Amino acid sequence: MYELAVIGGGPAGLAAAYSAYTNGVKKIVILERDKELGGILNQCIHNGFGLHRFKEELSGPEYAHRFIDMLKDTSVEVRLDTMVIDITPEKKIYTDNPSGYDVIEAESIVLAMGCRERTRGAISIPGTRPSGVFTAGAAQRYLNMEGLMAGSRVVILGSGDIGLIMARRLTLEGAKVLACVELMPYSGGLTRNIVQCLHDFDIPLYLSHTVTEVRGDKRLTGVTVAKVDENRRPIPGTEMDFDCDTLLLSVGLIPENELTRAAGIEMDPRTNGAYVFENMETSIPGVFACGNAVHVHDLVDFVSDESSRAGVAAAAYIKGEKHGGDAIPFKNGSCVTYTVPQKLHKNTTAEKTDVFFRVNKVFSKSRIVVSDENGVIASFNRPFMAPGEMQHIIIPTNKLKGSESITISAEEATQQ
Amino acid sequence: MTELTCIGCPMGCRLTVDEENDYAVTGNSCKRGEIYGKNELKNPTRVLTSTVAITGGIHDRCPVRTKDAIPKGKLFDAMEIIKKTEIQSPVKCGQVIIENILDTGIDVIASRDM
Ligand SMILES: Cc1cc2nc3c(=O)[nH]c(=O)nc-3n(C[C@H](O)[C@H](O)[C@H](O)COP(=O)(O)OP(=O)(O)OC[C@H]3O[C@@H](n4cnc5c(N)ncnc54)[C@H](O)[C@@H]3O)c2cc1C
Ligand code: SF4
Question: Which end of chain A is less packed: N or C, by CB atoms within 10 Å?
């Protein structure tokens, strides 16, 4: 019997395990299906991780190493090559690894399975089905871990960060990246990645465009790109043909939650992750969730912070601090697409409540407003907000406790 | 006046650099932004990340990066050298793999243990 089982050994799982340990939990196991810890960070060899947390600009593997090193001198047990296949509300965990099938019992569980990429099937592009169509993350793994190039003439569909990072990486490796094509009128990636991955190498970004045809018999030979109208439908007569052998899809990530669903944990259709309370607890008491399994993050620093909170909360749960009881829901206000957490325990003892959310359009000078049935509780000014950049606010919890429900909204700042 | 997005970190602050006024930077949230804004107009530099072939490691490629930013114009020449480099496991994170690349005064280091 373990006190805590952490599912997934990426940055979320590592931070949760470490925080639980430093808060007095000693019997902890991390279950990871891969052959090493670090999660997606192992293939993210670019720099830009850890500025918030370590005040240094690290690559993905370096960032992961900081946490792996911190765990070295602890009693935290790590099981690699261990796939979790099922969890139950009674906190039984069924695993499969090279030495066989096993059942683990724990007092508390942290779900940190990360996310996976949307595929071509998920966005349905017309045309043939030749080889040469990859998700950007798969191409990243081939190149950065195995040294294999996806192709030599590349079009990228979607302007998510992975696609942008791969545009630069493939260009530096000698490929010609012809275009990055984005359906929406704004980019889905961080502005800094548009600058340093596309502008630096004169790669054109076509906003409000999409791929309308994929050609090729065995291998991809070309794609057609067209402009789209405000309903995101291709506009006839705007087609451009590109001769390319590779199409990378960077069209978003989906939290990985088969285990969560199968355990009967309440899910949020907006995030595709579990509903969580302010302490990252799910609808099953003692089961916590954090990182990309809860909502897709752009910054690993925030993954670590959120996951540390989950670890602290799991430690409190194991020591006997149970929440339950009434909860105050957070609601989407105007221009807000989701919030994490989705609920606040009325009997929480946390002094501050961290709220993460995304907006659905690009804002320049703007304001985030937190309100309840009696009016505005707090507001925060922002010089800029975009859907590709997750927003984070911290609200003193005592300001929220008297509310029936709390609404987070975003609005243009009125000129003074 | 030139408007730039700081790439110093994922905050992506929007900077304004005043060339007429000794490249004074506004819009930055930290010192790095000021340094970036000035450099970007005078001598743009980038940290280069890539991989080198490794034998005896858990993977076939070991990630490397320049310890500091190198001039933007030298990225492709630096890649040529990195592509030809082969190393033997074990290496330690931070270990120098290529010393003083292209006489920039900057080393290329391993960015993980392998
Ligand atoms: C390509 C890319 C580029 C990025 N660039 C940046 C950047 O520049 N700066 C930045 O700050 N952030 C960046 N990020 C974001 C950051 O890396 C992620 O937010 C972070 O890695 C998420 O951590 P995680 O632990 O939630 O998920 P992951 O890292 O995905 O880890 C999840 C782990 O769970 C394991 N797992 C899943 N299911 C099971 C199961 N059933 N049994 C056992 N194990 C399981 C997986 O194998 C994996 O190791 C990037 C992300 C990607 C994908
Ligand atoms: S100015 Fe500082 S905080 Fe802003 S993007 Fe640059 S490095 Fe980040």
Answer: C
State which ligand 1 atom lies nearest to the alpha carbon of A34: 47
Out of 3.50.50.60, 3.40.630.30, 3.40.50.2300, 3.40.50.720, select the CATH number for domain A1-117+253-323: 3.50.50.60
Q: A1-117+253-323 with A326-416: one CATH topology?
A: no
Task: Name which CATH class applies to B49-110.
Answer: alpha beta
Instruction: For residue A169, give the 3-state DSSP assignment.
Output: helix
What would the pLDDT profile of A374-401 be if each residue is shown by its tens digit? Answer: 999 999 999 888 888 899 999 999 999 8
Could you tell me if the CB of A310 is within 6 A of ligand 1?
A: no
B30 lines ligand 2 (CB under 6 A): yes
SS3 assignment, position A58: strand
Domain boundaries, chain B: 2-42, 49-110
Q: Which residues of B touch A45 (CB under 8 A)?
A: 49-51, 63, 65, 111
**B109 and B64 in contact (C-beta within 8 Å)?**
yes
Alpha-carbon gap: A181 to the closest alpha carbon of chain B (Å):
21
Say what the pTM is. Answer: 0.90
Q: Return the structure tokens found at B42.
A: 């005078």
User: Cα distance from B85 to chain A (closest Cα, Å)?
Assistant: 13
Residue to mutate, B3, B9, B17, B47, ligand 2, most ligand atoms under 8 Å from C-beta: B9
Ligand 1 centroid from CA B45, angstroms? 29
Sequence-ordered alpha helix ranges (H) in A76-135: 120-123
Residues of B in contact with A61 (CB under 8 A): 63, 93, 111-112
* Closest C-alpha to A252, from A144, A380, A120, A364: A120
**Scanning the structure block, which residue is given the tokens 């290529």?**
B98
Interchain CB distance below 8 Å, B76 and A48? no
- Asked if the Cβ–Cβ distance from B12 to A190 is below 8 Å, we say yes
Please confirm whether the linkage preceding A285 is cis (ω < 30° from 0): no
Cβ atoms A325, A347 nearer than 8 A: yes
For residues A74 and A186, what is the distance between their CA atoms, to the nearest angstrom? 45
Q: Write down the ipTM of this complex.
A: 0.88
Confidence of residue A317 (pLDDT cuts 50, 70, 90): very high
Q: What contacts A408, CB < 8 A, 6 or more positions away? A: A330, A331, A332, A333, A336, A339, A355, A357, A368, A369, A370, A393
